[in-house]
Design goal:
By secondary structure, this protein is an alpha/beta fold. Helix content is 37%, strand content 11%. It has helices at residues 6-20, 112-121, 132-144, 165-172, 177-180, 189-192, 196-202, 227-232, 241-250, 269-275, 297-311, 324-332, 346-353, 391-404, 411-418, 465-478, 493-515, 521-549; strands at 93-100, 124-131, 153-157, 212-215, 221-226, 282-284, 290-292, 338-342, 359-361, 374-375, 380-386, 425-427, 433-435, 482-483.
Length: 550
């Protein structure tokens, strides 16, 4: 939730765009003794999830719901509480590694933010940050390295599927079950405050708990609109697919386009597939049968619908090839009136568009009289694993992660997300942090401690309470129709080995059909190929896993 300058935003957006594209296959990964391990949960005794106990933080102004509406804060907490009683570290040096969406951080010796977090944690930190473009290559090296060479703490980013990832985790990471399963997690109160849905979507490996999830909100892929443009073109609540088409055509004129999308987003396909109520990845029937969205006629219909939108001229002509930062620039300057991004993009989208436009997340349209659905995100953005070590060392590392997982409204959260007051931020009239010039360089984006551990996500935009109220009201409408990928948290050997390649083949076809380069029949041919090369086997493996986790 850190404030960022527009320049910083665009640099970060470039990385986010890379993460949203189809990743290339990690071609080599040897995990030693774990390469042949049985990571399935089927037939295993399942470790209980950590007992959830809400960590004390600031009371929200807008209440959350059990279904997934986030707590909202229309103002910054006036009194920041402490959630950690003592310095968690032992003075030793730890090595950590995570993905980054920012720019390379300044070295520790010249980085006051880095030193402040080290002091608070009570350790020296050697931090390796990996840009998303380099993540798979770097992880291939790490996974093939000797156990002794592993960092103490590793962020496993869920934006990619790493071949033999589960086998690597099982062979090289510490089994955290004795430390976190059930009531054992109570020794780490902030980790106990991570909701069960995040652990569930992270999943077990071989029945055991090996990681700590990074919790994320329920809304996933979101169509962000220029509210004035879409309202002026006739957008209304309860709109239909026909209404959407009419609004898009009216909002497109004189080299301005209603719809924008960046490379790899398949013309914003996830949003339209959900509006057509197609499965988001995988669906599971009452009898436990798994069905892929690719085989569902509603997803095919969404592809055809988008192809007609593109043919009508409503999409920006570079929507199949433009990078995220360029498309974002076009959104901010009014060239395109919408673009798909993750829901979490609001944290920078609202501040950056202030004075330019009013962004708003779209409500799904109805298709053939059936109200549309919405994409449910994986509730675990990734997870953190620990290098195998002695019990005392593991307990110390868990205390560090417990500190980083402090909830919103605590002094620990403020330090990690904003740095030092007077150095990295000052307080505005509302009491909310306002980033200084130094804070635009030294921050949690460029040195992403948040990707090692983080407390539950909340709705908050500094100085924009109306935005928080609007998003909270919007979540109340879309959360009930969110479509969850039934494979989240489940193991599939075929999916781990071949899923990335098969997905890339399907998404290339979807993009090609929407762009008008190939006919819709090419989609049908691609589905047959996908099924024969591993799709049907994945369905069987997910069904076995689902039955084991039921």
């Amino acid at each position: 939730m850190s404030n960022m300058s527009r320049r910083t935003l665009l640099r970060s957006a470039a990385a986010v765009g890379a993460a949203a594209t189809v990743p290339g296959l990690l071609t080599a990964c040897s995990t030693g003794s774990g390469s042949g391990g049985n990571t399935s949960n089927a037939g295993k005794k399942l470790a209980p999830w950590p007992s959830y106990r809400e960590a004390p933080g600031a009371k929200p102004d807008l209440a959350p719901t059990a279904e997934g509406v986030q707590p909202g804060y229309t103002s910054y907490p006036a009194d920041m509480t402490r959630s950690v009683a003592r310095t968690p570290g032992d003075g030793s040096t730890i090595r950590v590694m995570s993905v980054t969406f920012g720019t390379p951080p300044k070295a520790a010796a010249q980085n006051q933010y880095w030193r402040a977090v080290e002091k608070a944690l009570g350790v020296k930190i050697e931090y390796t940050v990996i840009p998303t473009d380099d993540y798979q290559k770097k992880m291939a090296t790490v996974m093939a390295d000797s156990p002794e060479a592993l960092p103490d703490i590793i962020n496993v980013f869920s934006g990619f599927t790493l071949p033999r990832e589960a086998q690597f985790v099982q062979a090289r990471a510490e089994d955290l079950t004795p430390f976190l399963s059930g009531d054992a997690v109570n020794d780490y109160p902030n980790l106990a405050g991570i909701p069960t849905h995040a652990w569930r979507d992270m999943g077990r490996v071989g029945g055991l708990i090996y990681g700590i999830p990074l919790e994320r909100p329920l809304p996933g892929s979101t169509l962000w609109l220029n509210q004035d443009t879409f309202t002026g073109a006739g957008m209304k609540e309860g709109w239909t697919a026909q209404d959407f088409t009419a609004v898009a055509q009216k909002a497109t004129a004189r080299r301005k386009y209603a719809l924008g999308a960046s490379k790899g987003s398949l013309f914003g396909h996830a949003v339209h597939a959900a509006a057509h109520n197609a499965p988001s990845g995988w669906a599971v029937d009452k009898d436990g049968t798994f069905r892929s969205g690719y085989t569902d006629e509603r997803l095919r219909a969404a592809v055809a619908f988008q192809a007609e939108l593109r043919k009508s001229g409503a999409y920006h002509p570079d929507s199949a090839s433009m990078a995220t930062p360029e498309m974002l620039t076009l959104f901010l300057n009014g060239t395109v009136a919408s673009m798909q991004n993750g829901f979490g993009a609001y944290q920078t989208l609202y501040p950056d568009s202030k004075g330019l436009l009013t962004p708003t997340p779209a409500l799904p349209y109805a298709v053939d009289g059936t109200p549309g659905g919405f994409v449910a995100a994986r509730r675990s953005f990734g997870y953190t694993i620990l290098k195998k070590a002695k019990k005392e060392r593991i307990e110390m590392l868990l205390r560090l992660l417990d500190y980083l997982a402090a909830p919103f409204g605590t002094q620990e959260w403020e330090l990690v997300h904003y740095g030092l007051e007077g150095t990295h931020f000052t307080r505005g009239k509302s009491g909310a942090p306002e980033t200084t010039k130094l804070g635009e360089v030294e921050n949690v984006t460029n040195l992403p401690f948040r990707y090692l551990a983080e407390g539950p996500q909340v709705l908050f935009v500094p100085g924009q309470p109306e935005a928080v109220r609007a998003m909270h009201a919007w979540q109340q409408k879309v959360v009930p129709v969110a479509i969850r990928n039934a494979s989240f948290g489940l193991q599939s050997a075929t999916g781990t080995k071949h899923g990335t390649t098969l997905k890339a083949q399907m998404e290339d076809t979807i993009t090609s059909v929407i762009a008008g380069r190939t006919p819709l029949t090419a989609y049908d041919d691609a589905v047959k190929k996908w099924r024969s090369q591993g799709g049907d086997r994945m369905a069987e493996e997910y069904a076995e896993e689902h039955a084991a986790n039921a």
